[in-house]
Amino acid sequence: MRALFTGVVCAAVLGGGVLGMQLLAAMKEPPAQTKAPEAVLRVRAEAVYPEDVEVTLKGYGEVRALNVVPVAAEVAGKVVRIHPNLEAGGLIRKGEVLFEVDPRDYEAGLADARAMVAMNEDTIVRLKKQYEIDRERLKTLERSRDLAKAEFDRVTQLFEQDQVGTQSLVEQTERGYIAAADLAEQLGLAVTLYPVRIREAGNALASAKARLGAAETSIERTSIKAPFNARVKTVNLEAGQYVAPGLNAMTLADDSALEISVPLDSREARDWLKFKSDAAQPQEAWFRDVEPVPCRIRWTEDKNHHYWEGTLNRIERFDQQTRTVAVAVRIEGEAAHSADADKLPLVAGMFCEVSIPGRTLKDLYRLASTAVNFEGIVYRSVEGRLKATPVERAFVEGEDVFISHGLNPGDVIITTRLVDPLENSLLDITADEDTPPPVQHNASKDGA
Asked: Of 166, 316, 341, 394, which alpha carbon lies 20 to 30 A from 145's?
């Protein structure tokens, strides 16, 4: 009985404790709930507007002389003289003698050719004079023949009809007539052949003159002269050496006109090079002529910012393996010296960067490269919140990316590089010290 009483008392105590705890909990006021602050992205941004942009194509190439000419001996013989500057890197002015072959044998041939010409000229003069003389003699012989014929006829008639004279006289006059006729016929044949003989002598004279011209040319070719103001690239010649026609003696370069072959991506060349619009489509399967636009040239090893100006000249070749189009940029005259007070020469062999102006593209948006991620996404600020926007890149130039589709005039573009930001994040936009904060513009305000 006592144990039952003890259990009842314990249960009552526990029940009272639980009831008291509930009453106390009901009397306690719950703590006030606080709202967690929203994360804010601090970024830089700028408003963008469309602009017309001239595309600049850039490539690299090595400067080369436009004209590089191998010079060979034109006649055989011993080299008796060479130019004192005839060594690699030497400069030789146009018209100066590079080297000379012993001319004595060719001078003898020239004298012989001149003698043959003079002899044939004298022959023609003699034949023409004799032709005139023999034509006059022929008239005399023809007259003698006619007189002899008349005398023969008269003597024959007297003897046969009038029985005057003798048979011996008839035969004598006949012999005289035959002799006169034979002389006239022989001289007549000779006279008819004179024009042929004169033509033959003229042909012989022409042949002699041709040999004379060849001899004179050979004499001229014993002295090889510089065809232009030349720089000697290579030399394979020494004084006293025997040379033969066609032997490559040296290589000369004309540095007054230079070229750079610049390979460009074939797609960029197709899309952005300026081709002549008024040029007819060539019948050959090749590119149309390009506009001769001025190009800026920079030597890659130059630290002093010298630059040169060239002109786009032509499309040189297409490389199927690399899918590149090589264009030739030409530098002529004074343009081969830098456009500054230093006048640094552009030299064959320099490796240069070439900037070529291309077509002008309309309504492009210029963004910093940090504003566009690798997936072609830019982040805009719309009512102070981040919005991801896919765009289409037209091309990249240095630190600038040009956008052709996906943006509207006045869009505020975040230029800070972001990595996987949350869509609709709250933004805190700052600007550079010298740049005012971006202002959002309605498209209608700008007429777009």
From this structure: 166
Do 410 and 268 sit in the same domain of this protein? Answer: yes
Is the separation of the CB atoms in 440 and 385 below 8 Å?
no
Same domain for 160 and 97, yes or no, is no
Measured distance CA(314)–CA(330) in Å, rounded: 9
Contact predicate 335/309, CB 8 Å: yes
pTM check: above 0.85? no
Are 299 and 348 in contact by the 8 Å Cβ rule? The answer is: no
Length of the chain, please? 448
Asked if residues 327 and 290 have their Cβ atoms less than 8 Å apart, the reply is yes
Neighbours of 371 (CB within 10 A): 26
Contacts of 437 (CB under 8 A, 6+ apart): 429, 430, 431
Q: Tell me the pairing of strands 223-225 and 91-92.
A: unpaired
Q: What is the DSSP string of 192-228?
A: HHHHHHHHHHHHHHHHHHHHHHHHHHHHHHTEEE-SS
Within 10 Å of residue 434's Cβ, how many Cβ atoms? Answer: 5
In the predicted structure, residue 34 carries a pLDDT above the cut 60: no
Cα separations in angstroms, 415 against 46, 183, 373: 7, 120, 11
- The one-letter amino acid at 23: L
403, two tokens:
């956008």
Q: Give every CB contact of residue 23 below 8 A, 6+ residues apart in sequence.
A: none
- Name the nearest CA neighbour of 418 among 384, 367, 379, 383: 379
Q: Interior CA angle at 427 toward 425 and 433, to 5°?
A: 155
Q: Which has more pLDDT, 350 or 190?
A: 350
DSSP states along 220-288: HHTEEE-SSSEEEEEE---TT-EE-TT-EEEEEEEEEEEEEEEEEEHHHHHHHS-B-TTSPPPSSSSPP
Confidence band, pLDDT 50/70/90 cuts, at residue 282: low
pLDDT for the residue numbered 117:
93
Same domain? For 47 and 80 the reply is no
My answer on whether 175 and 265 are in the same domain is: no
To 10 degrees, what angle do helices 104-161 and 167-221 make? 170
Strand locations in 84-128 (E): 91-92, 97-101
Q: Which residue range(s) make up the domain with 85? A: 74-101+223-245
The answer for residues whose C-beta is within 8 angstroms of residue 114's C-beta and 6 or more apart is: 212, 215
CB 88 within 8 A of CB 235: yes
